[in-house]
Every structure is written in C-alpha cells, then in structure tokens.
Hints:
Layout: H1 2-15, E1 50-53, H2 60-73, E2 91-93, E3 116-121, H3 125-131, E4 137-142, H4 145-155, H5 159-171, H6 184-187, H7 193-196, H8 199-212, E5 215-218, H9 222-233, H10 237-240, H11 256-265, H12 267-287, H13 290-310
Parallel strand pairs: 1-3, 1-4, 2-3, 4-5
Helix pairs in contact: 1-2, 4-5, 4-11, 8-12, 11-12
The structure holds 2-acetamido-2-deoxy-beta-D-glucopyranose (5 copies).
Residues 144, 220, 277-278, 281 line the site of one 2-acetamido-2-deoxy-beta-D-glucopyranose.
Keywords: Glycoprotein, Golgi apparatus, Membrane, Signal, Signal-anchor, Transferase, Transmembrane, Transmembrane helix
Family: Belongs to the galactose-3-O-sulfotransferase family.
Organism: Saccoglossus kowalevskii (Acorn worm)
Amino acid sequence: MSLLLIATILTLYSRFTPGPLPFNVSRDSRWFTTQPSPITPSTCQPAENMVFIKTHKTGSTSLHCIFCRYGYANKLSFVFSTRNTKDGHIRKEHLNQSIILPPIGGFVNSSSKYNILTGHVSYKRKTINSFMEDNPIYVTILREPATHVESHMNFFSQRKQVMASMQAFLKKPRTSKNEAGRNNQLREFGLSFESTLNERIVNETIMTLDKEFDLVLILEYFDESLILLKHLLCWSFEDIIYLAQNQRTTRETITDTFRHNVYRWSNADYLFYNYFNRTLWEKIRQFGPRFEIELAHFRDLLKEHSKQMAL
Length: 311
Ligand SMILES: *[C@@H]1O[C@H](CO)[C@@H](O)[C@H](O)[C@H]1NC(C)=O
Ligand SMILES: *[C@@H]1O[C@H](CO)[C@@H](O)[C@H](O)[C@H]1NC(C)=O
Ligand SMILES: *[C@@H]1O[C@H](CO)[C@@H](O)[C@H](O)[C@H]1NC(C)=O
Ligand SMILES: *[C@@H]1O[C@H](CO)[C@@H](O)[C@H](O)[C@H]1NC(C)=O
Ligand SMILES: *[C@@H]1O[C@H](CO)[C@@H](O)[C@H](O)[C@H]1NC(C)=O
C-alpha cells in the first residue's frame, strides 16, 4: 500500500498534473512500519523554501525526487518551466518569468513566490532569489571527478573526444581548449572554461560557494549526506527515503591511471570535490556519535523499503 502511494506520487509528479491530489498525504503518514526513530523529536520547524541546483551526471535525480515528493506532500509551489510540457522540469535555462508557470494560487509578482526550485538552472543567485520565498536553503551535490567524467562520456557518447583531449592535455598541458567533460561540475556554477584553468579563481569560487550553499552533498556518501540534509531541513526519516534513479547497469572499470589523469586534466573539479568532501566529513564529525545511530537507522529503513518494493 505504502509503495503504491509513493509510486503514485512520483508518477503524478512526473506527469505534472496540477490541482489537488486524489488522496491525502501527510508528513507523518504511515508509509513505513518501522519503530519510531531513535531520536527524540526536535522543536525545529521543517524548511519549506529550498533551492536544489541540479547538476549533470551526479546522481542528482534521486535527490530531485526527494524534493519533489516532499513538495507535493506538503503542497508547496514549484518553479516549473512552461517550455518543457512533458514534466515542467527546468533544464539548462535562464530563469525568466515568461517561461515559468505561476506559483500555486497566485501570479508571479512581489507577493506570491515559489517554495522549491529543483532543476538544471544556471546558478545566478540574485535572479533565483527574486523568484523564491524568503531565505531559501541552497543545496547541491557533487561526484568524485573520475566517475563523473566516466559517466559524462558514456551518457553523451563522448568517449573518444574525452580520451583524446585528456591525452593531448597530458602531453602539452598549456594548449587548453574548451573541452567536453572537463571541469564540468564547477562550470555548472557559472565559471567559464577559461576561469576553471586559473587556480586562484577556482579557489575563490569554491570559498564563495561554501558561504552561499547550506549543504553540498556528496554522491559517494549519499546516505550520510541525506542525514545531514534531514537535520538541515528539520525533516523526518520518511522524507529522505529514496530509490536509486537513472542508474546504469554497466560501467567501465576506472583504473588508477584514468583517475590520476582526470585529476590533472579536470583539476578544478578535483579541488572542488575534495573541498566539499572534506567539509561533509567535518560536518559529520561535528554531528557527534549520534550520527552513526541515525545512519544505521536510516539504512534499516532503506532496506525495509526496497524489500517492500520488491514484493
Ligand atoms: C483529506 O483531508 C481533508 C481535511 O483533513 C478532509 O476534509 C478530506 O475529506 C480528506 N480527503 C480524503 C480523500 O481523504
Ligand atoms: C524573458 O524571455 C522573453 C522571451 O524569450 C524575452 O523577450 C525577455 O527579454 C526575457 N527577459 C529577461 C529579463 O531575460
Ligand atoms: C500579486 O498577486 C496577488 C495574488 O493574486 C494580488 O492580490 C496582488 O494584488 C498582486 N500584487 C501586485 C503588486 O501586482
Ligand atoms: C588552491 O587550493 C588548494 C587546496 O587547498 C591549494 O593546494 C592550492 O595551493 C591553492 N591554489 C592557489 C593558487 O591558491
Ligand atoms: C572523502 O573524504 C574522506 C574523509 O577525509 C576520505 O576518507 C575519502 O577517501 C574521501 N573520498 C574520496 C572519494 O575522495
């Protein structure tokens, strides 16, 4: 039953059918039959305004679904594109009133705004904020650069180009061109290709993003990241349950040589990823011993959930 509910919500969402849902969903729903969480309920207020900058080939679809489900269940307004009539998702677009649907129950004007933005949108903070309710929480997700490049070159069928450009770079690092897959993660945050080759600019940008983002999740530590997200947003365990999305069944083996070459070739992404992997683990350390308890509980929930899905 619970699985049907989730499946239905996701289907409904993906078809983007506005209007009331045919059933009631609430945060404290009985979707899950496990014991209560080991943590006493806190007094914080669940966050309602959030911006998730979705990046390419970082496993961000699972996180996207988490935000969509939460927004649907809590009747929040989404920034949806009028151009993508399939599901309304924003894809690589500059935000502009003329291409987005009005928020629930309102028009786009100074007194009615959006709660959630989750999409491939160029990171222009001021523009984004002008569409959002006050003080949205900003999150994004990064992925280890070698697996990211591998995913990128297979998804976009650019294996040859990527390998050739990496080899050319290793021979003659100075002759750099705007190359597919190279430093793509940092470029999604508005840095030009040329700027990604300047380590001083790269480091400054990383520092700025560190100030501007409330949490940068790391794909390799997705469950850990979600525990931090749950606390940041004052959500429940049920809110962060997920099923892996968009996963390929075959992948190339990533050799140490390939990894090492990617780190040199895509060095801005390497610095970017390393920095936020470090801050993630620093946050986990600050969380204290409760972190392991929460993580274990969450993984039990995930196991139970996927068992139910398999029925
Ligand atoms: C949903 O909840 C509202 C308010 O609690 C109630 O009036 C309504 O009948 C419920 N609808 C369904 C389909 O259960
Ligand atoms: C928004 O998009 C419309 C139509 O594409 C365009 O005419 C307008 O100049 C854009 N506005 C901004 C602020 O970019
Ligand atoms: C904004 O939209 C609201 C809701 O439709 C409306 O009541 C209000 O008059 C609008 N404000 C402006 C400045 O247009
Ligand atoms: C950029 O940051 C890295 C990692 O902290 C550091 O090793 C490097 O020296 C910095 N580069 C510049 C130009 O500041
Ligand atoms: C991320 O950081 C942790 C803690 O410093 C480290 O053990 C781990 O190897 C790093 N992961 C990657 C993929 O670099």
